[in-house]
């Protein structure tokens, strides 16, 4: 019977770490046309490492100390990487900050030692009028190599650049190939800048839409849905709304509680290949019914 076939499909998935919340999600996954992936923590491991510090007019240690001070209050993977790096470099007593605030997809700011210090994407820095020629060129070079670059600013001046690298998951390339072999179109959505996004996407073999704010991701999911069934894969940091907006939202790896709540499926193993496995499981289950 249909319910029995669905139930056995759901439990076959569960045995392989593919948790699906119900028959509707299981069925939709087989007909998926586009799979949109969040980059950070989904296609990449989500544990960026600091690779370069480029100070302007201050010392390297001061750049790191100020950046870590502002990032202390942020749970963003880039923030954690900067704070961890500062501590590893011996910056134990970070200055206390007040009035910290985050701008999702852009950066954070706080008052440090009486002055507002900002850290965020090069685009955010440009909007603040702070990214001058030399800094912009250095940032572009680092980005072309697949680094994410964040800019530390104070009083409209760039104090330095911090480059970070977040390695693709070991099976990301294979997981993308598996989806293409099933006739599914993968696309990467990222708030990261276009140069970094393009470098990583080219390496993994999929298209990319970069420099997206959380609201842009949401709008894009809507556009993609007009062309067919869309699955969104993410860990939910800033992106829970996109998971909810897709036909099937899939939480992956160390997903946040919000993501797990919002998603209609979850991959217990942090493996990109699990997405293609979901598609195959769905198609096999539906074939049993027909
Ligand atoms: P992703 O789509 O890769 O998950 P986000 O939307 O979380 O990226 O962030 C997009 C960009 O905004 C980051 O690449 C970074 O430049 C900037 N940004 C966001 N949060 C922070 C932060 N806490 N510190 C510095 N930069 C940040
Ligand atoms: Mg994110």
From TrEMBL:
It is found in: Cell membrane; Membrane. It comes from the Bacteria. Belongs to the cation transport ATPase (P-type) (TC 3.A.3) family. Type IB subfamily. This is Heavy metal translocating P-type ATPase. It comes from Deinococcus sonorensis. The chain holds residues 372 to 661 of 729 of the full protein.
């Amino acid at each position: 019977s249909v319910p029995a076939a669905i139930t056995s499909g759901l439990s076959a998935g569960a045995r392989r770490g593919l948790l699906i919340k119900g028959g509707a999600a299981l069925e939709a996954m087989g007909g998926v046309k586009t799979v949109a992936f969040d980059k950070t923590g989904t296609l990449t491991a989500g544990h960026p490492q600091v690779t370069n510090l480029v100070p302007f007019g201050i010392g390297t240690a001061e750049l790191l100390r100020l950046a870590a001070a502002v990032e202390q209050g942020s749970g963003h993977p880039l923030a954690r990487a900067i704070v961890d790096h500062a501590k590893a470099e011996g910056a134990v007593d970070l200055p206390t900050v007040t009035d910290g605030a985050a701008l999702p997809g852009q950066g954070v700011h706080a008052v440090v030692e009486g002055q507002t210090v900002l850290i965020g994407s090069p685009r955010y820095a440009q909007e603040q009028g702070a990214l001058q020629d030399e800094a912009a060129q250095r940032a572009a070079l680092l980005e072309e190599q697949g680094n994410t670059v964040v800019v530390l600013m104070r009083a409209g001046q760039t104090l330095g650049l911090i480059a970070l690298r977040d390695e693709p998951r070991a099976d990301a390339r294979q997981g993308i190939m598996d989806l293409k072999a099933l006739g599914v179109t993968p696309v990467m959505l990222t708030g990261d800048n276009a140069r970094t996004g393009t470098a990583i996407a080219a390496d993994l073999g999929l298209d990319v839409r970069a420099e997206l704010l959380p609201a842009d991701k949401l709008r894009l999911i809507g556009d993609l849905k007009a062309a067919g069934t869309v699955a969104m894969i993410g860990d939910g940091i800033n992106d829970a709304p996109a998971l909810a907006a897709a036909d099937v939202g899939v939480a992956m790896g160390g997903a946040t509680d919000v993501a797990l709540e919002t998603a209609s499926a979850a991959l217990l193993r942090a493996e990109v290949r699990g997405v293609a496995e979901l598609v195959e499981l769905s198609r096999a289950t539906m074939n049993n019914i027909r």
